[in-house]
Amino acid sequence: MSDLFQQAANQSEMPFALVEGEPLTVIPQDLYIPPDALLVFLEAFEGPLDLLLYLIKRQNLDILDIPVAVITRQYMEYIHMMQELELELAAEYLVMAAMLAEIKSRMLLPRPVGEDDEDDPRAELIRRLQEYEQFKQATEDLDALPRMERDIFPPQAELPPLEVEIPQPEVSIRDLLLAFRDVVNRAEQFASHHIELEPLSVRERMSLVLQQLKRDGYTEFQAFFKPEEGRMGVVVSFLAILELVKESMIELMQNEPYAPIYVKPKAA
Amino acid sequence: MDSDRLKSLIEALIGAADRPLSVNQLFDLFAGDLEQPGKDDIRKALQELVAETADRGMQIKQVASGFRLQVNPEHAAHVTRLFQQKPPRYSRALLETLALIAYRQPITRGEIEAIRGVSVSSNIIKTLQEREWVRTLGHKDVPGKPSLYGTTAQFLDYFNLKSLNELPTLSEIKDLDRFHPELAFSDDRPPEDPAPADDARAEEALDAPDRREASGQAVDTAGEEPA
Amino acid sequence: MDSDRLKSLIEALIGAADRPLSVNQLFDLFAGDLEQPGKDDIRKALQELVAETADRGMQIKQVASGFRLQVNPEHAAHVTRLFQQKPPRYSRALLETLALIAYRQPITRGEIEAIRGVSVSSNIIKTLQEREWVRTLGHKDVPGKPSLYGTTAQFLDYFNLKSLNELPTLSEIKDLDRFHPELAFSDDRPPEDPAPADDARAEEALDAPDRREASGQAVDTAGEEPA
């Protein structure tokens, strides 16, 4: 009886090959398969689920009705083959082997009456196989879509002569101020470079004084003070000139006491 | 501006651009014109161009990020004769990962691995991100805060799609309990044998020839059941 | 092969090729086809394509070495706009240099380098001078007679300032940044800023009154300080 069942099971498998008209469903023991070829074959699987799906499909079986014992036996044969070939076996394959063994043993236990189907020990495996099969199909569909570089190409069109101008960069005052803050913060890290900041009106006036000297050359001291600017303006001008003298940017000249004072750029 | 001239101008702009152009981008390109077309004029012209060029060798096609001029993919076999270089090939692992991200986004790497049953190499995720097909959408609020991945407009552009809706539909997943488990179950087990059977016996029972018939019935029943 | 399909194929080949294709080259590309078109078929198809596409945005055009796809030159003015580049960005080094010249003028390059701790490239100074934001005020009477740099009226105009006095002091910069990290100074942007009116800007606009107050205060404070 046992032989009979075995035979029937074998017949349900798809044959590997036809030899002299006879379907061959079991690899002959003495058949030599070059290890390289087997390697390619085994590496074609994306993982244990992929291998299981292959084993199921090969026998035209429905995922929903997996004969766990058969599949487990075949699965283990592949695992042994991989181990014998000393292939680096991903841990996931062994985890699946353990899962199959567990399902098989649970299938053998008697079940209390009235138990609902969620307790089918195969349920989780079936769910995973179906889900994987679904995405295996989705991958094939995705691969079949027309895609750039393989099916779709951009035009290689000749352009008419174009005159393109590059605009100037835009700067916001915020960027400018933050840059200033950062550079000062950085400089303050070094004790030797403590930066003293004069009021900006004085620095600005220093520039204006230099500008005026650059334009007019030798200039009378009085010319830098404008009464209409008020006391504040006069103070700012005075501070600016003192600072410029201190920094050796200008020179003050007076021929004799009480004579007019002149200002001239120092490096000129 | 008459509609033929607008169509000609739009075709020139799309043909000269090195990226798909959206209606808004096209609209902006006409800014300052004396006869500036409205967005509706542009949309109408685009619709006509897409329809008119559908069978041409160079077609205007709408993809996710706008409209582009492309060589009609039907002619790919002839067109590839022009090129020496083979198109890049992508591994099945990469495509499976991409498919999972496309259909299941937002999805974590762990979730992808759970479905594929194998680990996903960092290289695959990196390649997908470098191609700008996949990006991180955020982080899942579970321990480790894993990245949540999703696809980009460039992914859709690459696969000639306007939106994710245009992806091929997923095959259906059949419900286990609709298949009347008792039937399939009972003959997976040695019938009327409550004693623990040894391995050999169990295998025999599983391979029993009448099992196929039994499950055939089960399927039939399931087919009627939802009614 | 019917003539419409041949025309479509030829258009695809010409559109995909990165060089003009001659009749002979096209003929060779059909080699091995079941319905291989003759050279006369190809010539006729080309003639029709050239005629049909003459007014289109993308036209098939005969040039010395064969036939090519080209953007209709009549549309050059519009196509130019596609390549109108976004303004480039200035480097951090340039902004720091400009800020130091604004706050510490008249200042030499050596002094800028001493504060920044790194050398200042001649390009930066040149760019700032070409932009007419910075000019030479004179030369410092130290060995080497280095140039003294200061800002210009154009600099003030660009940043919408009446005088340097309107620039906030350093402590104000730090404070404003602390209290309004997002908003500080953003409405001091040059008014001619042609940035697109996107959502972010719309939000900024809503926040404008607050911001104006904040920077108004800053200016007032700055105005009082020299006293």
CATH topology of the largest domain in chain B: Arc Repressor Mutant, subunit A
Q: What is the distance, rounded to the nearest whole angstrom, between the alpha carbons of the first and last residues of chain B? A: 61 Å
Q: What's the alpha carbon Rg of chain B, rounded to whole Å?
A: 27 Å
Helix content of chain A: 40-55%
Assembly state here?
Answer: heterotrimer
Main sheet makeup of chain A: 3 strands, antiparallel
Q: Name the beta content range of chain A.
A: 5-15%
Structural class of chain A: mainly alpha
* Global geometry of chain B: elongated
Task: Order the strands across the largest sheet of chain B as they lie in space.
Answer: 1-2
How would you characterize the overall build of this protein?
By secondary structure, chain A is mainly α. Chain A has nine helices and five strands. In chain A, strands 3-5-4 form a three-stranded antiparallel β-sheet. A two-stranded antiparallel ribbon of chain A has the order 1-2. In chain A, helix 3 (48-58) crosses helix 6. The N and C termini of chain A lie far apart (119 Å). Residues 1-12 of chain A have low confidence and may be disordered. With 227 residues, chain B is mainly alpha-helical. Chain B folds into two domains: 3-82, Arc Repressor Mutant, subunit A; 89-225, Orthogonal Bundle (Arc Repressor Mutant, subunit A). Helices cover 46% and strands 10% of the residues of chain B. Chain B contains eleven helices and four strands. In chain B, the strands form two sheets. Chain B has a two-stranded antiparallel ribbon. In chain B, a hairpin with a 2-residue loop joins strand 1 (58-63) and strand 2. In chain B, helix 1 packs across helix 3. The longest helix of chain B has 15 residues, at 39-53. Chain B is elongated and about 60 Å long. Chain B starts with a helix and ends with a helix. The relative contact order of chain B is 0.08. Chains in contact: A-B, A-C, B-C. Chains A and C meet through helix 7, helix 8 and helix 9 of A and strand 2, helix 4, helix 5, helix 6 and strand 4 of C.
